[in-house]
Known about the structure:
With 396 residues, the chain is α/β, with parallel strands linked by helices. Helices cover 37% and strands 16% of the residues. Strands 4, 5, 7, 8, 9, 10, 11, 12, 14 and 15 form a ten-stranded mixed beta sheet that branches.
Amino acid sequence: MNITDVQVFVTCPGRNYVLVKIITDQPGLYGWGDATLNGRELAVASALRDHIAPLLIGRDAGRIEDTWQFLFRGTYWRGGPVLMTALAGIDLALWDIKGKQAGLPVYALLGGPTRAGALAYRHCDGRDAAEIADNIRAAQAAGYTVFRAQVDVPGTAHFADATWLDRTTYPQPFETTPYLRAMPRLFEALRRDLGDAPEILHDVHERLTPIQAARLAADLEPYRPFFLEDPVRPEQATSLHLVRQHSTTPLAMGELFHHRWDCLPLITQQLIDFIRVDIAHIGGISEARKIAAIAEAYHVQMAFHGPPDVAPITHAANVHVDMAIANFGVQESSVFPPQVAEVFTGIPTLAEGLLRVSAAPGLGIEVDEAALARYPYQPGEYLPTLRRADGSVQDW
Ligand code: CS2
Ligand code: MG
């Protein structure tokens, strides 16, 4: 079963996605992968089209691990967001093919289901605590039990993530002092309003220094957050030692990591409780299951990144792995733009707070190429930039 073609599509059904289709010499046997890197889509598309696809023609599509090792180690240049996202696109398409060839869903190939579905969390951002509480109540009515709360901080515009949807690079002001005061007040208000039942987490988005992160983790502790996400920058992740010394607030990190070696110190030193790697940015399912196995040995749970800026193929891959591992924690869920449903079928479904995939062979996602062609790539979908009041750059 040899690879005869590797096709790359860049499409924008409301968000830009880079999709990979690997075609084999077996009639009708092909696989779909996702290689989307938000705001750097064309760099990945070029890596795939110009450098990686020519290496794969004629190779055995069934040799997933060998192809992974060949692209990661055998071609010398490895790591980084562009190459690891490209590798993920290939890896996901090969797992899709493997499942279709076997007539089995990928979760069955990975060992079979360990649970009924993947516990999902929902973004419930808002301008203030009252709006977030209303959003959480509405999501509870839809069956969710875990929620992410992001709030605008007075004097600090738009902490809530929704602002990135206006597709421009624009500076936003951010100051840590009002932020550090606002977050405990938010959690206090949410607990007062909603009680103990909802599991609530917060994404710091790498904005704090280690001592500020320790302060926030300690201040939030009485309100029992589900986890505090990305409290410090990935470059200084072992400074989480300091945060650990000051609180029992569970910590989560990983969406900016690219492979198991980025995760290793945090897992083996038990500096985090949840690892949040993005399957589309760590070289795919092959790497995800290795990270999950390492994490299992250290009581770290998996919480794969699931934003709307990666394609539904990655969301399906998330759920296939979630379904098959022992140390699944929680799965970030996203609401896609409505056009996405015209291009993709088989997107994971959500009921009673659980994400599920069907038992269809492979990843279970089909892509309508005619629909995809109606939504050409839209340049300029960049993330915003944060600046301090004095004009200096702040992590977004
Ligand atoms: C966020 C992401 O989902 C999350 O946890 O941190 O939405 C992140 O901002 C984007 O994926 C960046 O492209
Ligand atoms: Mg995040």
